[in-house]
Design brief:
The chain is α+β, with helices and mostly antiparallel strands. It has one domain (10-143): Histidine kinase-like ATPase, C-terminal domain (Heat Shock Protein 90, 2-Layer Sandwich), CATH 3.30.565. It has helices at residues 24-39, 43-64, 116-123, and strands spanning 10-19, 72-80, 83-89, 125-132, 135-143. Helix 1 packs antiparallel against helix 2 and helix 2 (43-64) runs antiparallel to helix 3 (116-123). The protein starts with 9 loop residues before the first strand and ends with a strand.
Length: 146
């Protein structure tokens, strides 16, 4: 999706390499804020964009790479017209998204985690996962203009 030929009005691609350390989320937040300022993201969209990107990168670092310092994660964002195309890659073993517990089920409502994939699916469009022996890639699109 990132650098995809179906993007007719590609403006710019942003990339960030991440260590498998929980503190990297601060770098992701600064990265998204810088990109938003450069590209004129609508203020009303910034919260959702920040949320889906930080959830995806947190999942890559925590669940994919399991905080293994020898593994990396990558965040790639492409501006395409008024939409942001996002790709997050890890070096983990993958998972089956269809087997994740529903965070809206009563027994899961008070759990402190387990909402990342759900939130990404709710706030982004065209969410897709690719699994290989090299890791997992999640790709999605989100509009940054109102």
């Amino acid at each position: 999706m990132v650098n995809s030929p179906d993007c007719k009005v590609m403006n710019k691609t942003y990339e960030l390499k991440l260590k498998s350390h929980i503190g990297e989320v601060r770098r992701v937040e600064r990265f998204v804020k810088k990109m938003a300022a450069e590209q004129g993201f609508a203020e009303s969209r910034l919260h959702d964009i920040m949320l889906v990107i930080t959830e995806a990168t947190n999942n890559a670092i925590l669940h994919g790479n399991k905080l293994d310092g020898s593994k990396l994660a990558w965040l790639r964002c492409q501006i395409c017209g008024d939409e942001l195309r996002v790709e997050v890659q890890d070096e983990g073993e993958g998972f089956d998204p269809t087997t994740l517990p529903n965070p809206l089920d009563e027994e899961n409502l008070l759990k402190p985690s387990g909402r990342g994939v759900f939130l990404i699916k709710q706030l982004a469009e065209d969410v897709r996962y690719e699994f290989s022996d090299k890791g997992t890639i999640v790709r999605f699109r989100i509009r940054f203009k109102t």
